Structures are given as C-alpha cells and as structure tokens.
Amino acid sequence: MKIEVSQAELLHALQQTARAVPPSSPLPILAGMVLRIHREGITLLAGSSPMVIRTDIRIPMPGLPRETEDNGLVVPARTFADIVRKLPPGPVELEQTDRSMLCIRAGSGLFRLCGTDGEEYPAAPEIGRPTLQLRLPNTVLKSMIRQVAFAVSASETRPILTGVWCRSDGEQLKLVATDSVRFASTTSRIEQPSDTPPFEAIVPGRCMAELAKMLQDDQGETRIDADEALIRFHTADMTLSCSLLHGAYPPIDRLVPARPNCELKVDTEKLLQAIERVTLLSGEGCVVFLHTVSAESAALVGQAAEVGDVREEVPIETVAGEGVAISFNGKYMTDILRAIAGGTLMLRFYDKLGPIAAEPEPAAGSSSLYLLTPIRTSR
Amino acid sequence: MKIEVSQAELLHALQQTARAVPPSSPLPILAGMVLRIHREGITLLAGSSPMVIRTDIRIPMPGLPRETEDNGLVVPARTFADIVRKLPPGPVELEQTDRSMLCIRAGSGLFRLCGTDGEEYPAAPEIGRPTLQLRLPNTVLKSMIRQVAFAVSASETRPILTGVWCRSDGEQLKLVATDSVRFASTTSRIEQPSDTPPFEAIVPGRCMAELAKMLQDDQGETRIDADEALIRFHTADMTLSCSLLHGAYPPIDRLVPARPNCELKVDTEKLLQAIERVTLLSGEGCVVFLHTVSAESAALVGQAAEVGDVREEVPIETVAGEGVAISFNGKYMTDILRAIAGGTLMLRFYDKLGPIAAEPEPAAGSSSLYLLTPIRTSR
C-alpha cells in the first residue's frame, strides 16, 4: 500500500500522536505507533490506558482497502518522527511493503523502517453507550483546561486528586482541580441541545494538559463523548481517548466561609510580578508574607536564611474590611496568578483557619475561583 | 557606596560575567561573583583558573573611592542574576551598605542580599610581561573559534587535546583543534604592526567557546595579550583571562598525504542535510557509508540493526580521480559541515590509511581544513 502526503501535514500528525507515547514503558511495543494506510488516507494511533491518541490525514485513495481490513504496522514512534522532521518540505511517499517494513521516500532519500504487525499493539478501548455528547469551541475548552489543570496533585497518594473533575448540566460546564492545598475551579456557559444529559467525570490531569496543547486550531470545535469508563475528545483530525478515574471527589461546596474579613482588589499582572520577585528570596519553603500597609498599598515580604530578604509593594485598587497579615506559598500563588492571566482580581481573606480566595473578574459567561491554604507562621 | 544603573545594562554584564562561574565547585565562594562600586562605575568579576571574566559598566562617580581602595563584595551569582532578570526595565540602585550586604532597589522593591568580603575571593591571576599583543575584529575571532572549537577532545586522557592551539606570526593567525579522530584548522590574515612578535599557545577549548558566545558586538574589536601562563581577551567592556595549557601539541604538518585518490566537489548544505538524515538510521556507531554512483552523484548509506536502513543521494559538482567507497562517523562529519556553514566544499580521499579531508572554498584572507579518520568496515 502506497500513499503520498505532504511533509508538513505528516509531521504535524506525527507530533500530535506522539504525545500519547509514554516516555518509558515496560511494554517495548508502546514505544511504537500504529500506521494504517487505507481508502480514506492515513491513520496514526499511539498509547494505551489512560491515554490513546488517533490522528487522521484524509487523502481519498479509492484503490486501497478499507481501514478495518488491515491491522497496519507498528513503527518506532520517535525514529519515525525524527526522520519526517528532517525531510525536505514537499511530498513524502509512504509504502507498506509487507507486514514488517515501511518505506519512506522523499527527495533523493529512501528510508526503510522495520515494524511489527499492528495486531500486536494493545487495542484502543471502545466507547460503550455514550452518556454525554457535548460540542465546545476549542478556544473555550483550551482556556478552561489552562485555568485549572496546574492545580491537580502530582502525588499518587490520593489518585483521585491527580484528575480534573468535570461536571456538565447541559447549560454549564465546570472544571475543578485540587491537590488539597490549592484549589482551582472554572465554569463556562455552554450552548447545547436541550436534551443533553447531565454528566460528571474525573479525567486524568496529564491527559487534560496534553489536550490543551493539542487544541491549536482556534477556529474549530471539539466534540466530547463519554461512557462510564472512557471519555473521548474529537477535533477535526484527531481523537484523544482517556480512561476516567473512579472514586469520590472531595466535596467542594463549603470550602469558602460566608463572610471575608478583608477584601482587596488588585491588578493581577502587578501582583504576579511582585510575587515572582519575592519568591526569589523566600527560602526553600517559598513563604511569602503579605500585609496591608495603607488603603492604597500592600507589602510582600520574603526571607531566605543566609541569602537575604526582600520587600515589595503593590498598589491596591479598593479595600474592604480590616487589614490583613498572612503568609502563603509564593510558588502556588504564582501558578494561580499565571492561570488568571491579567485583568483585575479580588483577593479575599477569612479568619485564621480559612483559605485565601482569588477571584478574577467574571468574563462573558464564565467565572473562576481559586483557593490557597495559608501557611501558619510565628509572625 | 551607592550607584544607579539601567536594568538592561546590569543584566547584560551579569550574564556575561556569570559564564565564568563554575557549575559546581568544591569552594563555595566560587558560586559567588565579586561586585565593586567605585569612581569609574561597576566592576563584576567571577571565576578562577582556568577562566576569569571581568565586566565593567562605566558610570563616572567622582565622589566614590578608586577601584583599588575597596575589595568589593562577593554575592551569590545566580541569585543576583535571577533578581536582576525579574526587575522591571528602568533604573536600578545598587548600594553596598557594609562589608556584608548589598541593597538592590528598583520600582517598589527592595532586595537585601547577604555577601562576604571580596578579599576572600581567589585573586585573579595577573599577566606578566606580555609576549603577544594582537587586535582582531570580533567577527573574525568569533568565526575562527566557531570553525575549530567543536573538535577539541572532551576527554581528559590527553589534557593538551582539550585545548585550541593558536599560532600567530604577526601576519597570520592559525587555530587548530583535534581529538585525534577529527582535526580542524583555520587560518586568517591579520593586519598587525610589523613589530608584532610571533606567538604560540594552547587555550582551553571551553574558554574559547565561551569567548565566541560573548563576542556579540560585531562592530567592535578584541585586544589579546598573553604571557607564558595566561592569555587575556579584552573587548570594550569585558576581559576574559584564561590559563594556558602546557605540553607538546601533536605535530600537524604531515597529516595529509601528497595526492588524493579521489576528489569530489559538493554543496555543503546539501551534503549536511543528507548526512543528518542518514545518521538517524546509522546505528549506535553512527557509521555512514559513502560511495560514488556516477560522475554526478554519490550515495550515502546507513543501517541500524533491527530498526531499518537508509539511502540518500547527493549531487556531485565535479569529480577527479577514481571513485570512492568509504565509511565514517556521521556525527563527526555533521559537526565539520556545520562549522563550514554553507558554500561549496572539496572532499578528498586518500589510500586506505589516510584521512578524509574537507576543505571549504577559501574566503578573502582565510582558509580552513578539516580531517576525519575513516572507519574500517567489512563492506
């Protein structure tokens, strides 16, 4: 089977699919990628649970067999991508000569890559009767993921916290992530047919982060379907399938006390830059101390034993309630402020045991909330 | 002592000086950098043998002491650079408040950085009676270093081969580097006063590579002076001092046999791209097999056990002598072709025991020669 494809298109598809190739795996075949050449063009497929990515390059080839009639060929993913990256721009001819060889012709070069029968590659999980079907603009989905995915837990101690909790009632989509010290949530209005069923699932954070990187086509939309075990994200030329996490997600309804003691309105970018500088001298624990100086200004203080200390001031736009004096992890706050990405921000402080809440100005149809547990210090 | 400097200028000087800070050192003080604030401005100094870098920011401060009257302050180099990188553009005030504290003020921030007395920093070696004084345009020096420095030995087995051998007769400057498998040399005409004495020295390759990176000012020139132990490169605002290597450099006069068996003229860029692709499938030894196919074309072949193989053709512009069939390390040849950087190239092949010679077309007043020991294979 032989097909001609442009180098740029093939490289893009290869790079997208390779995101599902695990960096290391006990199963050597998972360092490979399945290539199928068929009547509708080229299909690339990589990964196994929790993440499988399938990419299609549509080139009508009426003479070739249907996709289902051939297992395809597993080729080493990294070598294949390295070769295509180095090929000159222009047409590339791919030919599967038998069950174990892929020929790549471009310019004056001929590469022959050893492969194995696609039958040996772990089968991608099939979705059952879908309980959810949503359509979202890529820009909305990408932005929502970027706003929360950083806050998932990096530790496997509570596997459920490595996931992003997603809930849709057909009118709104809510994404939540927390590692139990910080919490991020974002909600967007979504326009779906009125019979869209409600849905709740916990999607591994790593899959969500890869999905956000893959959503480069800002014009397009993503179709989401899911059953009890699996969620799939379809764009025009790619499908990312992802096994869901199972377990009880911690309750998120009563995280914020009723009334704040203090409320500050600040410029997000100014606060971010000041905290980034203060964390340079805030020691290993990254402890940043914030206190109101006047109605117009708050001070941020950091101290690193034997290295030095730092004091920054940021202007306050409005203040309500008492003043505040509180310490927090500067690195965690930086992550939150980067996710908020500009505009103005409401910081709310509660009594001693309460969290710090950060809430950006709501945009059209969407709102976000971030919480950070303060650090108790002797100060 | 207090001085005001622009953030951009301070950052540039810090980044240049930090090149001499060793990545790790048994002497903790070498993670620091000496800062001196004095009548002529700011001096930054870092490193110890073999490489010391001194950078000056000239700001006339008539009220301050002379540079020699104060030891300055050793501050943690990396933290200092990180802080200045994060400061807003605009003026930065540096104040040395006592023998152990540097205050940095910018915008609404105040950093206090702990330091130690500059007296404790290893003294930079002083040059004796110089045997060499040369002036070279930065572009010439940078280009010459880039053409040979990659070929120094990475192994300390023969320390002398980790250096670049430099020779000047007052009319020409020649730089040579070899790790005994590959050899690179370049010669440039230099216009110096007629009484310039001849000179020969072996400069550590790492210092030469850092120097090439620092020569960003294409308009300027570098003044070189040296004695038996030390060479110094001075630009408008920076001095790099470097301890010389001592020992007998291998003889380089009779490396090339008298007459080649075969001579091919090829386009450097086309050959480079073809070899880069072939090395993707040339196995762990990176063995590339080259053979002439016709008077117009040569083939390059690579083979990686259990992964695949590759064949590329490159056009030949002219050919002289017999055909050729020879194997070499593709990675090493790639380094050579990258150093040559374009144009056309003469490849010469000798008998079985001889090297492969690569010679780019000589440019105005300069010429280069590269040699590579072939790999003996059963082919």
Description:
- The structure is a homodimer of 379-residue chains.
- The first copy, chain A, has 379 residues and is α+β, with helices and mostly antiparallel strands.
- Chain A has 3 domains: 2-120, Roll (DNA Polymerase III, Chain A, domain 2); 132-243, Roll (DNA Polymerase III, Chain A, domain 2), CATH 3.10.150; 262-372, Roll (DNA Polymerase III, Chain A, domain 2).
- Helices cover 17% and strands 41% of the residues of chain A.
- The first copy, chain A, is built from 6 helices and 26 strands.
- Chain A has helices at 7-18, 77-86, 138-148, 205-214, 268-279, 330-340; strands at 2-6, 32-38, 41-46, 51-58, 73-76, 91-98, 101-106, 109-114, 116-117, 132-137, 163-168, 172-178, 182-189, 199-204, 221-226, 230-234, 238-243, 262-267, 287-292, 297-304, 308-315, 318-321, 325-329, 344-349, 356-360, 366-372.
- In chain A, strands 9-5-2-3-4-17-16-15-10 form a 9-stranded antiparallel sheet. In chain A, strands 14-11-12-13-26-25-24-18-22 form a 9-stranded antiparallel sheet. In chain A, strands 1-6-7-8 form a 4-stranded antiparallel sheet.
- In chain A, β15 (221-226) and β16 (230-234) form a beta hairpin.
- The longest helix of chain A is centred in the N-terminal third of the chain and has 12 residues, at 7-18.
- The termini of chain A are far apart.
- In chain A, 41% of the residues are buried.
- The mean pLDDT of chain A is 91.
